[in-house]
Every structure is written in C-alpha cells, then in structure tokens.
Specification:
The protein is of the alpha/beta class. The chain has a single domain, classed as Spore Coat Polysaccharide Biosynthesis Protein SpsA, Chain A. It is 39% helix and 16% strand. It is built from eight helices and seven strands. The chain has a seven-stranded mixed sheet with strand order 3-2-1-4-6-5-7, with helices on both faces. Helix 2 links the parallel strand 2 and strand 3. Helix 7 runs parallel beside helix 8.
Amino acid sequence: MSRLVSVVIPAYNESRTVASTVRAARAGVEACGFACEVLVVDDASADSTAAEAEAAGARVVRMARRSGKGAVLTEGVMRVAGDVVAFLDADLGESASEVRRLIPPIAAGRADMAIARFPGHSRGRGGLGAVKTLARMGIRCLCGLRMSAPLSGQRAARREVFLRLAPFACGFGVEVALTIDAARRGYRIIEVDCDMRHRATGLDIAGFIHRGRQLYWVARALAHRLVVVPRGGAGR
C-alpha cells in the first residue's frame, strides 16, 4: 500500500478553524508514519476560508457555487491520490489530530471503513437527539448495523471504497447514506473512539434551523434507500 494518506476537508465559511484543522490533521496522519496530503474543498464560502486553508499548507478546490456537503465530498475524493482517504469536518480544530486513530485499521486491512465516535456519543447532545435517533434507527432497519455515532462525518476508508460509493448523497444526509451503502455492499464498518470536538451548535434560531435541515436530509437519505435496490457486492 502507498504511504500516502489523503485528508479531505469540506468547508463553508470556516475561516476561524480551518487552518488549525488542516495543521492538526496533517500532524495526526504523519504520527502514523504516513505522508499526508490535505485537500480543502471550499463550498463557495463568503469569507477567507480558502486563503486560511492555503496558508496552513492545504491544497484548495473552490466550488463554483454552493453545492452541499455530499457534492463537496464527492469532488474531494475524485481529486486526491492516497490509497487511504479520511473525511474530516473543518471545525475540529486541534482535535483533528485524532485522525491518527482512524488510519491504522484501514491501512492494516482490519476494516473497510472506520468512523469516529466522539466522547459522550451515547447521549443526545445539543438538541440533536431527534436527528440522531432517526439516523440510528434508520441504519439499523436498512442494513442491520447498531451505530453509536450515526451522524459522525469523521471517517476513513480506502479510496477505492469511497469511489465505489460515489457520487454521495446530497446535503447532510451524506454520513447516514455512506454507512448504509457501505454496509449493503458488504464492507466491514467499525466505530473508533476519538477525542474529537466540534464547535457547538447553539440553542438559538440559527441552531434550530440547522438541525431542521439536518433532519430533512437524513430523512430524505433514508427514504431513498427504502426503495433503491443495493448495488453489487464489495468485490474485495
């Protein structure tokens, strides 16, 4: 296997945290003994996200218009070269170094997809209980997996696995859809405890709007997979 790991970071108006996320992600991968490339896919941000990411050493691709997380991740995985690819959110900051826990199971062939499980994963926090419960129940019903962290966007897999699952589901349903699609293809999925931290979503109007959008996209991804016949096997 190549000694190169690619980190894809989707970002929209994340100028405050993207630089520290880029630096920490690189440090985490290099701590595993791999070379690292970091690609930030800027979803048409209105702030200095792209400039901050470039200054921190990332390669940056800018979407021509706002496209949503699923499309951004699809674009990213098409543009990287590592045999192992990790997806990390731009607001992780220094905690992005915990990617070092996701890489070894994939590089060693012990799993096909490793998903980060944050501290306190078993509790519904920040008003996300309804979304998390829907996601957890949907994954269990549609592919039989019991997930502690069904909404985690921090995950690693071989690039060929992500390419077989692309194009990814739209919007904030991408994580749930990736898990279901991978499981239905027979890929081995594990959850890994990681001390990662997101910027908290507030209990204000903006926070509730965000959670409402997330609920919509998760429900849409689940509904689509109720009627879509799974594609072929993993082909390992």
